[in-house]
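QUALITY CONTROL LOG
STEP: pairwise intake check
CHECKER ROLE: data steward
CRITERIA: each record must contain a sequence immediately followed by its C-alpha cells, with no blank fields

ENTRY 1 OF 2
RESULT FIELD BELOW
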Amino acid sequence: NMNRIVRNYTDRVLGWGYQFTDHVLDVVNNKLAKCKPITNIYDAALVVVCKQALYPFNGFWFSIGYCLFFFIPAIIFCVKLAKHYRRMDYESDFDQGWDAEMVEMAPTSAPPVYGDKKVWANQKLFEPQSQKYNLN
C-alpha cells in the first residue's frame, strides 16, 4: 500500500514537470510567433535609431574629446610661452629687417627688361627676336 502511494505521488510531481515543459513547448511553437512582425518592427527601429543615428554621435563626441585632450595642454603651454615672450628683449638687429645682414651677390642695377619679361635665370630664353636670329 505504501509503495503505491509513493509511486502515485512521484508520478503526480513528475507529471507537473512534464506538463510544464509541454506547455512551454506549445507556447514557443504555436503562440509566441504571432508577434513576430512586431519584433521585426522593433529590431528595425533599433537598427535605425542606434546604428544610423547614435553611432555617428559617438564619433563626434570622440573627436571633441580628442581635441580637448590635446588643446587644453596646448593652451596651457601657449600661456606659459606668452609670459616669456612678453619678457623677451628685442635684439638691436631685430627691427632693421631681414635684409640688413644680406651680402650683395649681384650688381645693384636692375635686370634687363625685354618687352614685358624680366631676365632672371636663363638669358637665352628671353633674348629679343632680333638678337636670337641675327635679324639686324
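ENTRY 2 OF 2
RESULT FIELD BELOW
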Amino acid sequence: RRRRARAAMASVYEKTFTLKDEDHTMGNTIRYMLNKNPQVSLAGYSVPHPMETSVNVRVQTTGEVTATSAMRDALLDIISVCDHVHDTFGDAVDEFKAKNPTGMDTGKGKK
C-alpha cells in the first residue's frame, strides 16, 4: 500500500506534458522558465521526431509545488515577458516616429 501511495504522490510532482503544434522555440522557452524556478528540480524537453510538430516537456519538482503548478507558473511568466517586450517595442516605435516624422530611410532605391 505504501509503495502505491508513494507512486501516486510522486506522479503529482513529476509529469511530462505534450504540447501539440509546437517546436524547439516553445520547448526551450518553457524549459528555461521552469529551470529558473527554485522549486523545480528538473526540467527538460524533447521533440519526439523531426517530422512531428509536438514537444514533450518533463517537469520534476522538489515537492513544494506540483508539476502542473510549476508549468502554469512558467507559462504565465512567458506571457509576462512577451507582454513586456510588446509594450517596450511599441513605445520605442512611437518614440522613433515622434523624433522622425518623415519616416525611416531604409536606403533602398538610392544609387
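INTAKE CHECK: passed for both entries
DESCRIPTIVE NOTE, ENTRY 2: The chain is about 50% helix and 20% strand.
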